[in-house]
Amino acid sequence: MAKKKARNPSIGAGVVGEGGRPVAYEVTVVVEPEQVEAFERYMPGHIADVLATGFFTGATLEQCEPGRYRTRYEAPGQSSLDRYLAEHATRLRSDFVLHFPDGVDVFRETWVDVHRRSV
Predict the structure, then answer these.
(1) Which one of 5, 15, 73, 114 has the largest count of C-beta atoms within 10 Å of its C-beta?
(2) Nearest CA to 22 among 117, 118, 116?
(3) pTM > 0.90
(4) The domain containing residue 65 runs over which residues?
């Protein structure tokens, strides 16, 4: 019988996003032109509030074209994101809707690191 090669325990181990695999929670917002200025004023404080929950290690706000923004929140693992969603997301989303009841479309996605390299 042929001997099996040992598999790398960091590949495919555990639940996606756990075991040291960082998770990115991305929120893309498309903002109507008349809301852009208010949105850009609001977001630094909103991002600070999200980071103050303690479940994320960092965040970036990016713009790819006028009125289209992406905020990327970095969590150390899926369990951190799950706890944020359970304990804080409703309150922070409600505040966002209070400021922007219309004129914005919001899309949320979760990404898991498969490979990361730095130079």
Answers:
(1) 73
(2) 116
(3) no
(4) 23-112
